[in-house]
Design a protein that fits this description.
The protein is mostly helical. The protein is 46% helix and 8% strand. It has one domain.
């Protein structure tokens, strides 16, 4: 077996393992939580359930406790938004990886700023 065939086999096995792991925690989360997006409140049924995803709160897809404490169900749009916000936060803070949400509060001094506009 040449190196390319070995690499193809390793990649194929890794993808199969990832798909199986994802299927397992998704099935658990769908049994555990109501079929509602945790952000926008959109409700799902069997016809559109494929649009409801499992989000890992700490962004670690290998952290899958059986109690579901690291999961939340999000629709495709809210899930994409959450990951975009996380990427922006990590880039802005210079951190390698952060499980915390964004801390920037752009309107924190709005009252003071508006006071001077009178």
């Amino acid at each position: 077996m040449n190196n390319e065939s070995k690499l193809d086999k390793v990649v194929s096995e890794a993808l199969r393992y990832r798909d199986q792991r994802e299927k397992d925690y998704r099935e658990q989360a769908l049994k555990m939580y109501p079929w509602v997006c945790g952000r926008c409140g959109r409700e799902f049924n069997r016809q559109n359930l494929r649009e409801l995803t499992v989000h890992h709160r700490n962004h670690d897809h290998d952290d899958n406790p059986s109690d579901g404490s690291n999961w939340e169900l999000l629709c495709l749009y809210c899930h994409d938004n959450e990951h975009s916000r996380h990427i922006d936060h990590v880039k802005g803070s210079g951190e390698e990886h952060s499980a915390e949400g964004a801390k920037h509060k752009p309107f924190a001094d709005l009252k003071a700023m508006l006071k001077g506009k009178d």
